[in-house]
Known about the structure:
Elements: H1 3-8, H2 15-19, E1 24-26, E2 33-35, E3 39-44, E4 50-52, E5 63-66, H3 69-77, H4 80-85, H5 95-116, E6 120-122, H6 124-132, E7 138-141, H7 147-156, E8 161-163, H8 168-174, E9 182-185, H9 189-205
Parallel strand pairs: 7-8
Antiparallel strand pairs: 1-2, 3-4, 3-5, 6-9, 7-9
Amino acid sequence: MTDRQEAARPPVPDEEDEDETGPIRRCIVTGQRQGRAEMIRCVVGPDGSIVPDVAAALPGRGLWLTARRDIVSQAVKKHAFDRAAKRPVKVPEDLADRIEALLAARCREAIGLARRSGRAVAGFEKVVAAVRNGEAGLLLEALDGAENGRKKIAGLAREVRVAAMLTAQELGAAFGREHVVHAALGPGPLAERVRLDGIRLAGFRDLAATPDARSKRHA
């Protein structure tokens, strides 16, 4: 079957996607159901273009994807958006890059909010102190940071989740600095938001170092 023939096939009915209620969504490429917080939502814009909606807040019927770069590429190649939207749509060639950039921005924004509310610290010594004092709900390690430092932090924080999906420059931007290698967020909604967005972001950066659920203590 050609891609055009496949695109012409009617979509599989999905009531949960139709009414946008409930916590579970179906990926328009794989057909697998996942929690909406783990997926990427897209909508069709007024001009018929696919718009990534990583915050799941834009109006319109959601077209949901597994949060992986290769899945987005398959959606484009197999005309999955046309099929799910039940009409031809325009898909940006750099859709996966746009999603990655939006997710990275969301992570930086949430970290910045935590910092301004006194719920985030940066720097090796401050992170170690936060861990020892039981004030760390999520540890953030720069992707391009020294491996020795990352191992030391990880060794101290055996009961705290660790995420490594941003570069030192990206972490630094969240703290108003040039570079940050080690950071910690206090437990709470912002830390959970960064953790979940970090998992999605890792799928677009082909990272092995996805956020690691080492303990349910702060879940």
